[in-house]
Amino acid sequence: MYVSKTYKKDMTMNEDRDKAFKQYQCDNSDIQQYLISMESRAFNAGWEADKQNSLRHTETVHDFDDKNGPVPAHKHCNGGGWVADTASVSSSVYVGSEAKVYGDAKVSGKAKLYDYAKVSGNAIVCDNAKVSSSAQVYGSAQVYGDAIVSGNAIVCDNTKVYGSAQVYRDAEVYGDAQVSGNAIVCDNAQVSGNAIVYGTAKIHNRSKVYSYARVYGNAIIYDYAEVSGDAEVSGDAQVYSYAKVWSKAQIYDRAKVYDHAIVYDNAIIYDDAQIYDRAKVYNNAKVYNNAKICSDAQVYGNAQVSDNTQVYGNAQVYGDAIVYGYAKLYGYAEVYGDDIVCNSGEIRTIL
Q1: Residues near 32 by beta carbon (within 8 Å), at least 6 away in sequence
Q2: C-alpha–C-alpha distance, residues 84 and 105, integer Å
Q3: From CA 32, how far away is CA 106, in angstroms rounded?
Q4: How far, in Å, CA of 106 to CA of 142, rounded?
Q5: Which of 22, 109, 227, 273 sits at a 20 to 30 Å CA gap from 64?
Q6: For residue 211, how many C-alpha atoms fall within 13 Å in the half-sphere facing its CB?
Q7: Smallest Cα–Cα separation from 202: which of 228, 229, 182?
């Protein structure tokens, strides 16, 4: 078959044109993909920048009135209270809208913060503990178990409040003190130092328990009374009305020390004995079994007074003396040395 040269030439030109068109399509596709890729990158970069700008503009801060000014913070998911970003608060915790947690404080478990409560510093509040009203927990204090801190109470330093203990109405617990069990500290009372209050003891009405003192059982300390040193008050004993108990003195059972009476050193007051007015019992003296020491009387040394005996006025019992059995000593009477007064004996000395 004969094919003209002109036809062959046309065929070659057509093939070259097809190849060129295909190459153009391929090149054009690469360009389009490149343009799309660049556009996508530019969009993503712009979106990321917008995102960062948005985060910067929406970052929340709050002033916790702790002299640190506004700091990064957020509103807690359960209750809406302010929480500093430096603090740790579990989602299971309730933080009321006016409550605040800041510093490096930690709140966990099912703890609840109500009203204007504040937890700060390195404090820990956990378990089922509750902090409410305008109460503050700070320093390295720990509040846990079913404990309650409320009113204008302050729990701070290295203290521990736990069990079902309650601290409320302007009370303060500080230092290394511990309040536990079902104990109550309230009404401007203070527990401090290394003091421990537990059981169902109650410390209230501006009284103070401090140093290494122990108050437990059903004991009650109130009305400006003070218990300090290594003293112990327990059982159903009461110390009140400006009375002071210190050193290693022990008050227990149903004994009472009140008014401006003072018991100290290694003295022991127990059973239903009462020390009141301005009386003093000290050294290694013992007063027990319904005995009463009052007015300006003093019992000291190794003396023992018991069995409904009354010592009052300016009377003194000291040394190794023993007075018992409804005896009465008053005026300026003195019983000392190895003296024994008993069986309704009555001694009165007038100077």
Answers
A1: none
A2: 9
A3: 56
A4: 10
A5: 109
A6: 12
A7: 182
Helices (H), the chain: 5-58
User: For residue 348, is pLDDT > 80?
Assistant: no
Establish how many alpha carbons lie within 13 A of residue 200's alpha carbon, considering only the half-sphere containing its beta carbon.
Answer: 4
Expressed in angstroms, the distance from the first to the final Cα of the chain is: 167
Neighbours of 241 (CB within 10 A): 18
pLDDT value, residue 44? 54
Residue 20 and residue 14: Cα distance in Å, rounded? Answer: 10
**Which residue's structure tokens are 């108990």?**
245
Structure tokens at 338: 């190895």
Token pair in block for residue 181: 């069990």
Residue 113 to residues 64, 238, 273, Cα–Cα distance (Å)? 16, 34, 44
What are 1's two structure tokens?
């078959």
d(CA 94, CA 91) in angstroms, rounded, equals 8
Residues 6+ apart with CB under 8 A from 72: 59, 60, 61, 84, 85, 86
Q: What pairs with residue 125 in β-bridges?
A: 107, 143
pLDDT greater at residue 71 or residue 347 = 71
Q: Is the pLDDT of residue 117 over 80?
A: yes
Q: Smallest Cα–Cα separation from 259: which of 272, 244, 274, 276? A: 276
- Spatial CA neighbour of 173 closest among 165, 281, 181: 165
For strand 346-349 and strand 304-305, is the pairing parallel, antiparallel, or unpaired?
unpaired
**Within 218-329, where are the H helices?**
none
Residue that has been written with the tokens 């000014």 in this structure? 69
